[in-house]
Predict the 3D structure of the following.
Amino acid sequence: MTSTQRRPRTRRIPRRAPARRRPASSRRRRGLRRIHWAWPVTVVVVILAAVREWPVQSVLVAVLLAAAGITWAARRHPLRLARFFHHGPRLPRPGEWTIRKFYALAPGQFEQAIADLALRDPGVRRATVEGGTDDKTMDVRVALHNGQHVQVQCKRYAATKAVDANTVYAVNGTYRSNGCHLAVIVTTSRFTASAQAFAAQEGVRLCDGPGLERWANGGPAPWS
């Protein structure tokens, strides 16, 4: 072959890259997705079969599970549960309360409003309305996380009417027999001088109109 002659060009065939296998993590995720879709279907099928085979027992189990769920919710989220079962008007939020809005509430709604305010305190575990014809001067029972109970007497009075010492006498004489460690009197009005003196002597907490308005708008609770 002379120097003037050129060598024929050879065509190179490109090599095919080997097929890449999906990593084990992606295969595992696809398997988990299938499992996530499979277990709800399996649970529904098992429940339907159980209801068809044992209808009475299935209803009893459902009732027990619902009761357990409500009990757990009452312990973990008492305020949400109270608002869920409370079929009254929407109460104002902190910062929206005024004494006039307390006057607009009915007596039962006023007691429920005090219970809702108590549940906003992080130290409160439960607050229940117990007012009635024979409430023994206890309208709201407040259970604290430290194990103590607070008796709350609610007085929705006009601004011209003050809570006298007789109310403080009655509350001071009953809250211990009701199993409470502390007594609080909450009013939309004010207290007489004799009521304030006796309450300071016996350790009964008083919350007048301005104090109630501060508490409702984010201030400290009367028992704190």
